[in-house]
Prior knowledge:
- By secondary structure, the protein is α+β, with helices and mostly antiparallel strands.
- It is about 15% helix and about 20% strand.
- The protein has a six-stranded mixed β-barrel. The chain has a four-stranded antiparallel beta sheet with strand order 13-14-12-15, covered by helices on one side.
Amino acid sequence: MKWLALPLLAVALAACSTAPKKPVSPSTGGITRPSPATPSSSIAGKDCSRYAPAQEDLSTRGDYTAGGLYKPGVSDTTPDHVPDLDCIREPAVIAEARSPIGNKSPYSVLGKQYRVLDKVDGYVEQGTASYYGNKFHGRRTSNQEVYDMYAYSAAHKSLPLPSFARVTNLDNGQSVVVRVNDRGPFHEGRVIDLSYAAAVKLGITQRGTGRVEVRALTPDGATLAAAPAPAPAPARSSSAMDQLVGQLPKDAARYHVPAKAGDTPSAAGFEAWMKANGVRVASGKPGAPTAPAVVASAAMPTPAVPTGAAPVAASPPTVQLQVASFSSRDNADRALARLTAAGIADARLSDVPGADRPLWRLRVGAADAASAEVLAGRIASLGFGRPQIVRE
């Protein structure tokens, strides 16, 4: 189900009830509008010309009934071929200004009121997804773009227009990034209406609907508004160790062993330089037990660690970030593998005790609040959305 706001109509809706039937392709003409995600035009060995951005189909204007429904009772249809997904790129998640049309809040449809979110941080929802096809191809969306069934886009009741979300099929783990540029679906129990290409990507076209998770995405895990320029980092005074290391380029050559022209620095020469500057060195060489030696700054002495002693265990994470919850263990394992492959080591799965059905949650540990903030940004950049700090 979709809706559209035109200058002479307060609300105009398009009904999307069941899976589209097979096909009668609409003719296109009139205004050319950019597709939310431009298909690739040069894939080796493939003809991607049929996936050029959709043009507005002027015949889809009007045809409203009371309540703003678009052609109720007229069946939707699907194309006569399954699109070649290699020709269709996922949209890049970028910062975009909200459309002047399609973001009225609150708004009412068929007697029910809805609100558009001010922020999308942490927005995650699970439910049923549907999709729409030929009936709406070439028709203006709620923010006056052109619906393109061969682009990865979607309609949503409360996400701002435009915005971005990752939609994951909870039954098979397939996911796709979509650009939300329309309103709907207003069918009871449905959370998102996908373009035909997005439905093919997720594998829900045969059944017509699918169980999905919708997770809002932003470029930096923050808000859709333009982020303020970061304040310059305060100047930091040099520590004693900073000053000491700063002398290395000009002083180390004096401590070559043997001291001959053209010699390169040696381990013994570096040790001599350290001792000359009053720095005690733990060399690891055997000797009589004496006071343990450490490399330390005179301005900041550190506890001694005897040579050969077992390393001190790192402090356990004190902050936990909740990344996601999954009803499928396979999906949970895939998400964990994605974090691990990105170098986020302290990610782990655990089951949710007391749940009425099997659930697995994915969490990541951080040493403190500051590092948790940085880690949350990294995780959001991987398409998971911004994780929340767990307070238990």
